[in-house]
Structures are given as C-alpha cells and as structure tokens.
C-alpha cells in the first residue's frame, strides 16, 4: 500500500494482477490499473510527479504509470536496456520483484527481487543504471520488502539500507554499489527498515515481530554524522 497525501489517493496491491486506487477522503475506489500478468507485490508513488506510480510483482516486471492515462503503463523497465519502453517482453528481474523505493528527488528508482539483485533505474530515461551492488544479498521474502535511503543532500555518499532474509541489513553506496557495512542482530528474516535522518537512527522489523533501533557507535561517541565516513567493520549497535 502506498498513500499519496496531496491527491488523497491510496494505491494498493491486494495479491491479484491489479493496482487499485482508493480515495480516502470519500472512501471509494476510483481507479484500477491493469498490466501485470501475475500478482502485484509492491507499489510506490513518485515523490516528484504526483500522478506517477511504480509497481512490481511476481511476473518480474517493474512498471511506471501515469494514473491520468490508466489504460497502459508509461514504461515497462528492462534490465538489459534492449527492449522498447512498453514491450510485453521486458522484465526488471529474473524472479519476482518484491521491493521498490524512489530516491528522495524522484529521479531514480530502486527495485529488489527474489533473484537476489538490487537494481537502480533512471526514471527519466527508463533505463537500468547498471550499478553492481557488492555483497551476498539474500532476498527470499514472499511479501513486500521495504528499503530505506538517506537523502543525497544530507549524506555523502547517499546510502541504501537493504534488509535480507538471512537476518542482515546491508548498507550500500547508492550510486557505485560499494558495500559499506553489514549489520547483524539476534533476529530472523528482516522485512523492513526505516531511516530517521534527524536522529541518525535506523529502525528494522523482523519475522520474530520485533522492532529494533540501530544507532552508529560513532554517532553515540562523537556525535558525528554517520553518513560522512563508514568503514568495513560493523560500527553499529542495536537496542530494543
């Protein structure tokens, strides 16, 4: 589910092939998007264009929509960058896609899938940026996976926090794919993460119904911005 506050719409993926829009102000369904040929798993509104929506699902496709023209998607992303923008043969991943998030400026889209890959897309061009993210990413989640991003104007380099099915949180450089850190905790599969910029804290939810709060040890000791300098060791602590 993804809400859009300005237009009062909520986009939802309900386990079938469709994306449904509901007007929360009037409590009615107003629109249905059809294009996926298997279950839709993830939906995400663009923070830049209020009528733009991204979707992904079991068919391995990542689609971008303009809800003002609901009959077909604007682009079906192709990880090979060879297909035409709306080709039915395009796939974003070679397995179900279960996570999407736009960068804060809306210029890029991240997708993650059960093929254990993370992909960065140029939204304007509708192309795979071809970033190779380091490390062994394990993503076997059947439900939607929530990624977290730092803001590019607050963090150099901008970072991606990716939860994994084997109980880790991988921290990547968004644009070059370098693995900066891998967080480990006493937990099972991690399903979601949220980054709180002001407090420099990361929140994670796992399969054991726990919510953990992570804070950089450097932040605790020196009150310095964790995003400025990261090393290859685990410099984070967790507490419930």
UniProtKB/TrEMBL annotation:
Keyword DNA repair in record:
yes
Query: InterPro entries in the record, alphabetically?
Result: Rad28/ERCC8/Ckn1/ATCSA-1 (IPR042238), WD40/YVTN_repeat-like_dom_sf (IPR015943), WD40_PAC1 (IPR020472), WD40_repeat_CS (IPR019775), WD40_repeat_dom_sf (IPR036322), WD40_rpt (IPR001680)
- GO CC, one annotated term: Cul4A-RING E3 ubiquitin ligase complex
Q: Which PANTHER family match?
A: DNA EXCISION REPAIR PROTEIN ERCC-8
Recorded protein name is 8315_t:CDS:1
* Gene3D superfamilies listed in its UniProt record: YVTN repeat-like/Quinoprotein amine dehydrogenase
Organism's domain of life? Eukaryota
Q: Name one GO biological process term.
A: proteasome-mediated ubiquitin-dependent protein catabolic process
Question: Which UniProt keywords are listed?
Answer: DNA damage, DNA repair, Repeat, WD repeat
* Repeat positions for WD: 33-69, 90-131
Q: What is the lineage of its organism?
A: Eukaryota, Fungi, Fungi incertae sedis, Mucoromycota, Glomeromycotina
């Amino acid at each position: 589910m993804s809400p859009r506050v300005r237009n009062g719409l909520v986009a939802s993926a309900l386990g079938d092939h469709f994306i449904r829009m509901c007007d929360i102000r009037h409590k009615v369904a107003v629109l249905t998007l059809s294009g996926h040929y298997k279950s839709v798993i993830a939906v995400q509104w663009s923070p830049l264009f209020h009528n733009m929506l991204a979707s992904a699902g079991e068919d391995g496709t990542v689609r971008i929509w303009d809800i003002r023209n609901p009959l077909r998607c604007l682009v079906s992303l192709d990880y090979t960058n060879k297909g035409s923008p709306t080709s039915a043969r395009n796939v974003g991943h070679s397995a179900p896609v279960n996570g999407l998030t736009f960068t804060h400026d809306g210029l890029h889209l991240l997708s993650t899938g059960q093929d254990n890959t993370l992909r960065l897309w140029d939204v304007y061009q509708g192309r795979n940026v071809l970033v190779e993210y380091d490390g062994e990413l394990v993503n076997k989640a059947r439900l939607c996976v929530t990624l977290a991003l730092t803001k590019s104007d607050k963090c150099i380099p901008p970072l991606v926090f990716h939860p994994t099915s084997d109980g880790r949180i991988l921290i990547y450089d968004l644009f070059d794919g370098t693995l900066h850190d891998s967080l480990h905790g006493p937990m099972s599969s991690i399903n979601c993460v949220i980054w709180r910029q002001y407090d420099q804290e990361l929140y994670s939810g796992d399969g054991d119904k726990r919510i953990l709060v992570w804070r950089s040890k450097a932040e605790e000791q020196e009150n310095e911005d964790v995003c400025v300098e990261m090393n290859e060791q685990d410099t984070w602590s967790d507490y419930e």
